[in-house]
Amino acid sequence: MENLKVLNDPNTVAGRLHGFFRRHYGITKVDYIYDFIKKIDENPNISNHKKEYLRVKLVSCRYKLCALMYHERNIRYTEKKYKKALISISRQLIKGKGTFATNAPEIMFEFEAYLLQCKAFLDIFSQLLGSFSEHNPSNMKKLKKILLLRKDPLAQDLLRLIRKNTWLIDFDSSESLIKTKRDIVAHYSNLELSAINIQRLDIKKFNTIRTKVEDKYVIDYIWSINTKMRRFVREALKIIESKSL
Fold this sequence. Notes:
Layout: H1 2-7, H2 13-25, H3 32-42, H4 48-93, E1 98-102, H5 105-131, H6 140-149, H7 153-164, H8 173-176, H9 181-188, E2 196-200, E3 206-209, E4 212-213, E5 216-217, H10 218-243
Antiparallel strand pairs: 1-2, 2-3, 4-5
């Protein structure tokens, strides 16, 4: 509980940073994690040692979710910056219709960092979920193996939730037998992103073709995964609260 008091105190460095991130990066979207920490702290059936372990994992999960939103915001900003620059160039060089395109390395850097943070979050969250079954799996694949061997309601509900969230396959190559985007970035090469493209339709009208990875817009992909990630966490914590606390 002391950690929460520090974060909510605007007179501390941690409190000021906490306030800054809440204002600028939508951190209120994951503040329900702190509500869960309070329930852990107030539960007399959980040992102090395990409370501290759970608190560390939960705060780490929140930190990772904040990082994912940070990368989403940066990519949105970078795309707008490139769009503005390309429109300015086209106004200077083209009187009629025309097209300008450019690669945006900053978006590549942010997207790769985003994928690595996704996997890091899922690894830590797997450890958190596994701890309620007295295990410490290092990733989602090992967590599923543990849950498959258990027949208690908590394990079965968590297993159903994981299976329902089919998007998790994007971060688990063992399920699809092909390299995931994260695997490529972490172990093999870099991902190919399309260029930002501005089409000048007439003097005042412009059409923007945003950065894509494979057949999806990068920012749409990130927004979708972030939304699903937060929903997954919320539903998992609700299951734990109803079955284990």
